[in-house]
Amino acid sequence: MRGIVYIVGAGPGDIGLLTQKALDVIKKADVLVYDRLVNRKIIEMAKESAELIDVGKEPGVNKNPQEEINEILLKKAKEGKKVVRLKGGDPFIFGRGGEEAIYLLENGVSFEIVPGVSSFSAVPSYAGIPLTHRGVSSSFFVMSGHDLEVDWQKIACLNTTLVFLMGISNLAEIAENLIEHGMAPETPSAVIMEGTTPRQRSVFAPLKDIARVAKEEGIKNPAVFVVGKVVELKDKLSWYEKKGLFGKRILITRPKEQAYDMEKALKEEGAEVLVIPTIKIINQKENIREFLNCVEKFNHTVFTSSNAVLSFMEGVRESRYDLRRLKTKIVAIGEKTAKALENFNIYPDLVPEKYTSEDLEEVLKKDIESKSVAVLTSDIGGEILIENLKKYTSLVEKVVAYLNIPNYEVRERLKEEVEKGIDIAIFTSPSTFKYLELILDGKLSFLEKAKIAAIGPVTKKVIEEKGFTVDLIPEIFTSEKLVESIIKAREMHG
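The structure corresponding to this sequence follows.
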């Protein structure tokens, strides 16, 4: 087997700037060798069996010398593996990608270069600064902020936009050299920290003051330093930091698969979205098989969540059950559950207008008198609904389609993130809140400073019983309406 190394640019931070080719090779990689500034979510895109090797270098810390990184790439490739060397930005722009490629070439290993979006252009763009603009600047000059052994006389006299990467530690010296060699002290300048991410912070000042202002504002690496008249355009062209939820840290506690649409919508509004599932879903296929063996005795089958639908379909596949045999009426608790059924070409006979157990009961009681009902739910769900349905029907049976248990695997990450502060916490079921409390050993003081959004009245009640205030609940109890309410509720953004 012949191995290969893909030297890949991961872009400047925003996962949306990852190229399609980069994504393709990351998903196929047997080994992922990545740098410190690579977005964690990009690393999570690797296949489950991929070996992950962190070779990130921090300023002033020689954790993994370049020679060692070269040897790792060579060794893994010679084992016949597909290796992805993942770098922030573009691998050929101050990324030492060329050195790694030459080393592989000299040792007989094939490589490919996958370019990435570089921070020198993307970060100023996200701060509303075009590097060129008609009548202002027709060119730009990019250099490393580490290298101070340059001809400052020539650079200072260039009628162009200057961009310095990795220059925070030398910011004052760069500004002094430019002024000393002829650049006007009042030249507009900007420093953008963690550009293209929800943690982006921009500071603007005349060149003579920029180092002081950046220090006072706590600006640190990674950052891009821009000098030139184009910086003045930021007042007109700033867009990213004006998004409605920009800079807000939002915690979503539901499972990742169910959080995808919520996360996407909130990120589009500029939020930093932390999907940390406090619940773990374990499908109970054996229970579904047993249910399918006696399904003909039920007139109605009630699905209380999309998880119940997914577990049901997994059981159907494993049992090779032909759905044409299914004669029972299908009932969904709400729109999301109905959509999950429709994804499998099962169209519910009944869906209440409001998505609570009480409304489901109201819809069912008109249709189930003296009939039998199966309720597919979790091990901790459905009790109130089942008790109430017993008033109207001859048989109600609970089918535990899945277990809903605390996800203790996220404990360390959860602790780490809540210590940094949460602006908005989202709870989509009572268990997402209850399990958060269990995982954090009851230490929920961070919620006192956060705004709390709950999907419906049952979840709201559980949270308020613990002494917290629920700031927002949508009129229609769906995740889509919950997200819409958060975006519209300006008071939550303060």
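The mean pLDDT is 93.
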